[in-house]
Amino acid sequence: MTVEWGTPAGRAELAVLAVHGRDQDPAFMRATARRLGPAPVRFFAPEADGNTWYPLSFLEPIERNQPALDRSLRVVDACLDRLAQDGFAPGRVVLWGFSQGACLLAHSVLTRPRPVAGLVLFTGGYIGSAPLPPPDGGVLHGVPAVVRSIEDDPWVPRHRVEETAELLRRAGAEVDLRIDPGTEHVITDEACATATKLLTTAAAHASGGPGRRW
Asked: Which family does it belong to (predicted)?
């Protein structure tokens, strides 16, 4: 099931694929979206079976999270294909995830990259115990990416967030990384404000407006 909200599809400059975390659902992403400022975007939020995209920690070897991980990556692919059919080509789609959803999207972008309009990763990183090579081909060149986390988050270690940001940079993305002090698994007001800036700038770019993408 996919939940939609925001600007009507016919008037939206961008689509945002909003992917929830473990033990959450699209309602969490919709509530969080209210913390973002206004932007001409339509949100599309898929729901994971049992409210989890894969069973174990994202730091476990990839095979331990199979076959659920591959199934969830196919959900992301199917959502992007559906958005393209609805008129939102990859260059008009921003990927936004929190926690397990951010991990799923980070892994998707780094292992099967598409030329998206932007990337917002709140407290997540690529999946698996082994390092990932950066994607080649320049698909992510110039893609704005907001990466945010908390210093001592109980589930997502700082080093994996930093490693993910570095992989995105090496793949050509324009990464804005910030890790705030704290011990809670939360999304800060600053993270929401910066994500809003990305959305409004990407929407202006998609509509042919002036200025940089980010």
From this structure: Belongs to the AB hydrolase superfamily. AB hydrolase 2 family.
